[in-house]
Amino acid sequence: MLIRNATILDMTGAAPYTGDILIKDGKIAAIGCDLPAQDQQVLDASGLWALPGFVDAHTHQGGFDMIDQNGMDLNEMTDPVTPQVCAIDGCNPLDKNFRSVPAAGVTTLCITPGSGNVICGQAFVAKSVGNDIHKMAIKNPSALKIALGMNPKGVYGPKGRKPMTRMGIASVLMETFAKADQYRRDKQKAQLEGTQPPKYDEKYEAMLPALEGQIPLKIHCEQFDMLTAIELAKKYHCRLTIEHAWLAKEFLEELCESGADINYGPVGVPTGYGELTGADLIDVKLLDERGVNVSIISDSPILSEEVLLIQAGEAVRCGVSPERALRMITINPAKALGVSERVGSLEVGKDGDVVLFSAMPARDVAAKLCYTIIEGSVVYTAPERS
Predict the structure, then answer these.
(1) Which of 50, 80, 160, 260 is the most exposed, fewest CB within 10 Å of its CB?
(2) pLDDT at 266 (0 to 100)
(3) How many beta carbons lie within 10 A of that of residue 191, not counting itself?
């Protein structure tokens, strides 16, 4: 495919410029002016803005049916510690909510287990179009999901089981991580000494990639729970992404020092009680100004994918520049998810994931999505352009 004469905002830090984007074999082969079409399909993008496809760093697509409980396949709420369960095994790409994702310009998304357990399971990153979720996946696993606060309390407290308090949650976490870390050390020692390794444990095996720094801990937390998340990651030298992060403005110093990526939001969920108090997109401005890699998330299908761009626009209203706001739904989440070598910006060698808008999104309130392109194939066309 050759996208001709677009105004390109490539999210590399360069100013917008007019040019062509050539996509071959799913990858961006060239970006420039007057590129030869050869045998490529040509899409005339004159008057349109080209950006990298949007990246949503926190969703439950394909496994959260908000009406039918039989479709709630991403919350294994039978044990507070389930690191061994994998979101990819409970994700249905034919789900009606999943099918609508490209219409919001989202081409890549992280799909994570729900937050009913303390250690919830393994998240993965996938493209937003396809019939086979294993072929759609581009990183699996991408993170070990953990949840603090009212979600695991609300699941296990009414059952009279630990954890029913934040103290209990912290206790479960520290005990489990201590055992998993010892399991890791015992395996390493056995390998070095040629002795019998410890008995196989599927839970601790599932935690090894996080303990060894291959994937981050993806911790659902808000308000002062963020400090617990930071202490856990610090103690076990784990990489960390903080999910939701409402009221981050009260903990800016600690968040900056932690080195964590922040996947913020969504703003639009019911607020005003408990840990949901304090959702405010001014937080992303304050974090961004301090050099934190901050992204905006949808938590879809709890909220629809359209809220991703809406929140970027609201961040602009809070004082974030349009370019910085768009980074929060493109290159920043790609970095947080560990897939920035493939997606998040328009550069030669990266995946040919492009969205074309009628104007610059996040700056122009009238900007409309015209096309969504994944790996060189048009997967969404606005009705008026069909």
Answers:
(1) 160
(2) 94
(3) 10
Average pLDDT, the chain: 96
Quick one: pLDDT at residue 275? 76
Percentage helix, strand, coil for the chain under 3-state DSSP, each rounded to 5: 30, 25, 45
Distance of alpha carbon 344 from the chain centroid:
12
Confidence class for position 70, pLDDT limits 50, 70, 90:
confident
Rounded to 5 degrees, φ, ψ at 43 are -115, 115
Task: Note whether 320 and 284 are within 8 A (CB).
Answer: yes
What is the distance between the alpha carbons of residues 333 and 353, in angstroms, rounded to a whole number? 15
In this prediction the pTM is 0.97
For residues 369 and 347, is the Cβ–Cβ distance under 8 A?
Answer: no
Tokens of 210: 């996080």
Q: Predicted confidence band at 57 (pLDDT cuts at 50, 70, 90)? A: very high
DSSP state letter for 198: P
Neighbours of 342 (CB within 10 A): 18
Helix residue ranges per DSSP H, the chain: 96-99, 133-136, 150-156, 166-193, 202-211, 225-235, 252-258, 282-289, 307-317, 322-327, 331-337
Q: Is 27 helix (H, G, I), strand (E, B) or coil?
A: strand
Q: Which tokens sit at 44?
A: 């005339």
Q: Are 152 and 117 in contact (CB under 8 A)?
A: yes
- Helix intervals (H) in 28-138: 96-99, 133-136
Q: Which regions of 53-112 does DSSP assign to beta strands (E)?
A: 54-59, 106-111
Give the integer Cα–Cα distance in Å for 99 and 232. 37
Task: Count Cβ atoms below 10 Å from residue 237 Cβ, excluding itself.
Answer: 10
Integer Cα distance of 378 and 386 in angstroms: 11
